[in-house]
Amino acid sequence: MGWLAVLVPLLALALWLLRPIGPNRLPTRPDPARDYDEALRRIAAVHAGEGDGVTPAGRTRLLTHGHRTARAVVLLHGLTNCPEQFRALGERLHERGANVYIPRLPGHGLADRMTGEQASLDAAVLCRITDEAVDIARGLGDEVAVAGLSVGGTMTAWAAQQRADVARAVAIAPLLGLAAAPGPFTRPAMNLLLGLPNLFLWWDPRVKAALPGPKHVYPRFSTRAVAQTLALAARIEADARRAAPAAGTMALVTAGDDAATDTGAAERLAGLWRAHGARVMAHHFPARLGLQHDVVDPEQVGANPGRVYPVLLDLIAP
Fold first, then answer.
1. What is the DSSP letter of 26?
2. How much is the mean pLDDT over the chain?
3. Which of 163, 186, 173, 172 is nearest to 234 (CA)?
4. What is the pLDDT of residue 26?
5. 102: nearest Cα among 69, 66, 57
6. Which secondary structure element, helix H or strand E, spans residue 234, and what is its range?
7. What is the C-alpha to C-alpha distance for residues 311 and 50, in angstroms, rounded to an integer?
8. Cα-flanking dihedrals φ and ψ of residue 61, to 5°?
9. How many CA atoms lie within 13 A of 288 on its CB side?
10. How far is residue 204 from each of residues 107, 150, 211, 217, measured CA to CA in Å?
11. Beta carbons within 10 angstroms of residue 264's beta carbon
12. Given pLDDT bands bounded at 50, 70 and 90, which one contains residue 12?
């Protein structure tokens, strides 16, 4: 019977790793700004709360025409990055006539690039930040578009599923699954990471803190933050199975050389949305372009804004 002493714990571990997500505890809680002035007051409060530890590149940004415009765009940056990631693209959207709001995720954009604060991110915080950004954008423009990369792409997908006041939602390389644990392996990986103590892993363990590319990016990431983002992604998928997305139009953007995310997860979400009759566009940058996970930041290794930005601009603000 000694084999039972091994088999039973293994079965228990397998069931725990494969356990389904719990009930929906991530609904939207909209509180839209009533007008342009109120949106500015809310942004001022965000700036006041950022503190001295945030770098100039890391601060929440507003690119405004000084009045309410026909379109307001929210841009949500990725894990370990900051609003600077979207500055160049935001400027081009501003040139197209939009007011552009680029909020900072908690624990990001700090002068201490080895900070551990990013580990405090959880699914509820990601939803709250998304709600607050869309609420502010409601005062900045008549129509609201949301776009985000990686974790920001997951937040964008949540906004698409939950918020009827989002006209367009463009999820760029959204973290809906892991390239290292694709498809059916994502759920066990998520549960394992949620159960383990948080770890900080180098983006590139060969160079560690000397990570090439943008200097406003942290060189390591939190496994807990990744797991919480995957938990949000699982909730989005579960909601998409039972209900149509609330937003008007969705777009999912993937890249062939993305070594971080499971691009198949984005395709599956698009299929679930389309099954409800939703209007969903998709764009895949082929591997031959050599684009990495971060296709937005022009300082990123392998960046090609000349090829990427025209596509994103037409999806976000046609």
1. -
2. 93
3. 186
4. 86
5. 57
6. helix 223-242
7. 33
8. -125, 145
9. 0
10. 21, 17, 7, 12
11. 15
12. very low
